[in-house]
Amino acid sequence: MLTLRSVSPAALALALLAAGPARAQEDPHLALEGVETPASLDWVKAENAKTLPVLTGDARYQGLHDAALKVLSAKDRIAAPAFVGTSVFNFWQDADHVRGVWRRTSMDSYRSADPKWETVIDLDALAKAEGKNWIWKGADCRPKTHDRCLISLSNGGKDAVEVREFDLATKTFVKDGFFLPESKQTVDWLDADTLILTRDWGAGTTTDSGYGMVVKTLKRGQARDQAVEVFRGEKADVSARPHVLRDAKGNRVVLIERATDFFHTKTFLLDDAGKAALLPIPERSSIRGMVGGDLILTVEEVWNYEPMPSLGRNFPAGSLVSVSPKALLPKPASPTGDIVISNDCDPCTIFQPGPRQSIDQVAVTDNRVVAVIYDNVKGGIRSFSDHGEFGWRSQGLPGLDNAAVSIVATADSGDQVFYTVEGFVTPTQLKLADATKAGAETVRTLPARFDASKLQVEQKEATSKDGTKIPYFLVSQKGGKLDGSAPTLLHAYGGFQLSKLPVYDPVIGKLWLERGGAYAVANIRGGGEFGPAWHEAALKANRQRAYDDYFAVAEDLISTKVTSPRHLGAYGRSNGGLLMGVALTQRPDLWNAVVVESPLLDMIRYTKLPAGASWIGEYGDPDKPQERAWIETYSPYQNLKAGVKYPLAYITTSTKDDRVHPGHARKFSARLADLGQPYMYYENTDGGHANGADPAANAKRWALHYTYLSRQLMDH
């Protein structure tokens, strides 16, 4: 019989593993879930002290760090624009502004070769003056007047923010203005002097996921305890949040979105009397804006719209649709008692993707709907105009072949839209278009950050375990020998309907590709590359499909002799970090390096850690025996086994990550130690889920990554 007091922690852990799932529930590393307890921080300090000297002491580290810092803090980067009224705003970080400056200029100045910027908020100066580790989290400016803004500041990069009202004219925070202390919160302007918001209001006002479930209105001059409740969700929800939409015709709608899980939302229309009416739209849908009084939404499940039994319209999953609020509210009766049905196209299909297409982004201008549409993971952008009973018509805006496209900003007034186009080896171009016209102006082109002259880009396919064809991109050296010797990094995500696209990444280019590496991106199921069905194929009980897809791409790279297990590395972050944990535990034979960043790894306890309960819609609920059964088959923490040879993994997270708890990475590393397995662990004490609070911190982050990868995949 095992006497607990007579064994070391490592021996205890091995004994618990050998004893099976029941005993393994006695987690020997549970204490590491204490985010900033002295014992946890001592453990982190000790692990960092083992890892940092090895990686920073490598002869390549400093060169990689300096190259990354040069890229990340370059002053000739494209300053991403945001419209505030008629001005163009930008948040900027460089070596002189580590925390960053929020600044503005005119549209004419922005379009010139040398914009003249005016600093509005200097975050470095603010942090120094207040003795806080402020990280910028954005601004929401008052509609119409655009003279006051709600500034969100995070202490250390957490998702929880402090919100303050700021005066753009005086460039000062408003004395006795709106102020909301730190919380995970969603705030919108109801009118010039009223906010509508959700946050932690005190006991009983947050969900199991840690987000607000009570929506209130707060008038200027009111104390927070005087805010008026207008909606209350349920504790088991993910969140309840307000959303105020306005259009150029003066229409305004106030919506309350009650997320019952990560993907299902009940949407309510709040009237002027404060009464909320449930809108009969699919729970798997996203409202993207409003044009001409119509709501613009994408539906992620089939929508059978039936205003009366004899009349119905069917909108397939993945469609872009317009619908007026009146079409969603109870129908008025005619004098004869019949329901009045309009002949207008309401609701109406704006765009219906084909089987290998998906809608990635949607934005609205005064008169147009603008959408980024991918066809076999290659992007384009279209502008749609409403022709009433004749439906919506579209025109394409200029782009590039085999590119990623992203909407950056749309004008507060008018139809201007900024968007970018880029490719793996094609530097980003920022374009400005009038969505009502053909053509676009190229406002900026990013200078080439790495030598791509010796690189080639291919789109290939692998066959997954169930026969599904999985596309992937491969960026490799031209004329490279197919002898299995290319150091290759395989990246994927595979969750939450997020797509991995052919983007220009200067850090990968400079620190990896230019040095002879190859880079592959796998478009595995669970992502959004081919619409909702591609995502749903790997949900919950079918999660293994995403992992099988990833392994199939790795096997294809090996079988075609692009690389070999000795030279193949895996990289993923967040949900992709979970993928990495599975890659390490299920197929350790495929890799010689695995970067496990900001990961989910203990899937039996993930719902017990902050924000975890919000992802039950993706993974399932481990508290339900049937669902726990399928989660146990892949949960990386529970599937580390004695007697298996694992490749040396690099596991990294952030103490300030309040989205994916750092306990996942800590406990996984500790269990590897119990098993006597090699690993490297590094925890950044700042930065939040993005794991990089500033250019200097991010440069260190990437230099550590690529030093490790170079040691594992490039050294012979």
Q: How would you concisely characterize the structure shown here?
A:
The protein is α+β, with helices and mostly antiparallel strands and 716 residues long.
| Second-tier CATH architecture of the domain at 4-69 and 449-714 | 3-Layer(aba) Sandwich
Count helical runs: 16
Question: CATH topology of the domain at 4-69 and 449-714, what is it called?
Answer: Rossmann fold
Report the end-to-end length measured between terminal Cα atoms.
Answer: 47 Å
Oligomer: single chain
Name of the CATH class of the domain at 4-69 and 449-714: Alpha Beta
Pfam families: Peptidase_S9, Peptidase_S9_N
Organism: Caulobacter flavus
Keywords: Hydrolase, Protease, Serine protease, Signal
GO molecular function: oligopeptidase activity; serine-type endopeptidase activity
Describe this structure as you would to a colleague.
With 716 residues, the chain is an alpha+beta fold. Among the domains are: 4-69 and 449-714, 3-Layer(aba) Sandwich (Rossmann fold); 284-330 and 342-448, Prolyl oligopeptidase, N-terminal domain (Methylamine Dehydrogenase, Chain H). It has 16 helices and 39 strands. An eight-stranded mixed beta sheet has the order 32-33-35-34-36-37-38-39, with helices on both faces. Strand 12 (214-219) and strand 13 form a beta hairpin. The longest helix has 20 residues, at 695-714. The radius of gyration is 26 Å and the shape is globular. The relative contact order is 0.10. The model is unreliable at 1-24 (pLDDT under 50). One of its GO terms (molecular function) is oligopeptidase activity. Keywords: Hydrolase, Protease, Serine protease, Signal. One of its GO terms (cellular component) is cytosol.
